[in-house]
Design brief:
The complex is a heterodimer of chains A (109) and B (243). Chain A is mainly alpha-helical and 109 residues long. Chain A is built from four helices and no strands. Classes of the chains: A mainly alpha (109), B alpha+beta (243).
Chain lengths: 109, 243
C-alpha cells in the first residue's frame, strides 16, 4: 500500500458512506411499501438520477474493494506485489462489469 | 532473601532458525528479572548460551526477547509478572533473523530506520544563532512524544504487518520519522514524507496497536503512524510528493 492507493481507498470509502446509507434506506422503503420488481423498474427506467447514483456506487465499490483485495493478496498469498496488483485489477474490472451491467438493466430495461 | 528453594522451569531457544527449546532449572529469587534468569543459565549451567544485553537498566534497548509468547525488555521484566505457574519460555525476537540462541540480527531493523529517513537533517550550521524552540507548541509536543524510543525492537517483533510484509518499515522507524517530521529544526521532510509514503511505508499499517500495547517505554507508534498517514496524504494531494 502506498499513498496513492491509500488516498483512493479512503476517498472511495468516504464516498460510499452516504451511498450505503441511502441504499439501505431505499431497501427499507421498497420492502415496507411492498414494491414489486416491476414497480421498481418502472420508477428507475430512464432515470439519469438512479443511473448516476448506482453508477457512482459501482465505481467506488470496484475501486475500494480491489485495493483492499490487493493488500490482502500481497500480505497473505504467495503472489508477488505485481501478481497481487494484476489480480486486483482483474477483480476490480469484473466487479465494475457486473455492477454496470446491473445499472444498465435498472435504467434501460 | 527468600524462596531460594523454589525452582523455575525455564525453556530457552537454542540454535539458529531450526533450533529448539531446551529446558533448565533455575533458582527462584526475590525481585528476579528475566535477564537475571538468562544470565544465571549462561554463567552457571551452559556457558555456550548466546544472548545480548548491556545496561541492565532499561536504557540501551539491547536485551529484548520473546518471553512466554510476547516480546519484552528482559532487564525490566520481573519474573513474578510473567512466569505463570513457575514456567518461562524465552526465545529470540520474532520478525528478525536468528543468529544463535537468543540473539537476532538487527541489521534489517536499523536499515529500515535509514530507509525511513530517520536521520536528523539540519537546517542550520553551528555558525547560526541557536533557534529558541518552545516546548509547548503542538509540533514540539508531537516530536517529544516519541523521543524516548530506545530502539529495542519490541514493537517490530510484535507487529503483525511486519510478519506479513517483510518490506514494511515497522513501527519504530516510522515513529522516528514522525518525530523528525514534527521537529521544526529539521530540513529533510520532503524526502522523509516521500520515503514513508512508498510501498511498505506508513500506509501499510493496519492499526492493530500491538506496538502501543507492547512498547516498554509506553510510546504510541500507532498514533505516530496515523499522523504520518495524514501528513503524507495531504502532501500527495498538494503535489509535494509522488506515489
Amino acid at each position: 500500500m502506498n499513498v496513492r492507493l491509500y488516498v483512493w481507498q479512503r476517498a472511495t470509502a468516504a464516498l460510499m458512506v452516504p451511498l450505503v446509507l441511502g441504499h439501505i434506506a431505499i431497501i427499507f422503503y421498497a420492502t415496507r411499501q411492498s414494491l414489486t420488481a416491476a414497480d421498481i423498474l418502472s420508477r428507475t427506467h430512464g432515470s439519469v438520477l438512479w443511473a448516476s447514483y448506482y453508477g457512482l456506487f459501482v465505481a467506488a465499490a470496484s475501486i475500494h474493494a480491489s485495493i483492499g483485495v490487493r493488500n490482502v493478496l500481497a500480505e497473505w498469498s504467495p503472489l508477488s506485489d505485481r501478481g497481487a496488483g494484476l489480480s486486483a485489477i482483474v477483480l476490480g474490472l469484473l466487479l465494475a462489469a457486473l455492477g454496470f451491467h446491473a445499472v444498465v438493466a435498472l435504467v434501460l430495461m | 532473601m527468600s524462596g531460594t528453594q523454589e525452582e523455575l522451569s525455564v525453556s530457552l531457544w537454542r540454535g539458529g532458525k531450526d533450533g529448539r527449546y531446551q529446558t533448565y532449572s533455575v533458582p527462584r529469587r526475590e525481585s528476579q528479572t528475566v535477564l537475571d534468569v538468562v544470565t544465571f543459565v549462561q554463567r552457571h549451567l551452559d556457558p555456550t548460551l548466546s544472548y545480548r544485553f548491556a545496561c541492565r537498566v532499561g536504557v540501551c534497548g539491547s536485551c529484548a526477547m520473546t518471553v512466554n509468547g510476547k516480546p519484552r525488555w528482559t532487564c525490566r521484566t520481573h519474573v513474578a509478572k510473567v512466569a505463570g505457574g513457575g514456567r518461562l519460555e524465552i526465545g529470540p525476537l520474532e520478525n528478525l533473523p536468528v543468529i544463535k540462541d537468543l540473539t537476532t540480527d538487527m541489521a534489517e531493523f536499523f536499515e529500515k530506520w535509514q530507509r525511513a529517513k530517520g536521520v536528523f537533517a539540519p537546517s542550520q550550521t553551528r555558525h547560526d544563532v541557536i533557534v529558541q524552540i518552545r516546548p509547548d507548541t503542538p509540533a514540539r509536543v508531537a516530536a517529544d512524544a516519541a523521543i524516548e524510543c530506545i530502539n529495542c525492537g519490541v514493537c517490530y517483533a510484535g507487529c503483525d504487518t511486519v510478519r506479513w510484509n517483510s518490506d514494511y518499515l515497522g513501527p519504530a522507524a516510522l515513529t522516528r520519522a514522525w518525530t523528525l517530521v514534527n521537529d521544526e529544526r529539521d530540513a529533510g521532510n520532503r524526502d522523509r514524507l516521500q520515503a514513508v509514503a512508498a510501498d511498505g511505508g506508513c500506509h501499510s499499517c493496519h492499526s492493530h496497536q500491538s506496538c502501543q500495547e507492547l512498547c516498554p517505554q509506553t510510546l504510541n507508534p500507532t498514533a505516530a503512524i496515523a499522523g504520518l498517514k495524514r501528513r503524507t496524504a495531504a502532501a500527495y494531494l498538494k503535489g509535494e510528493i509522488k506515489a
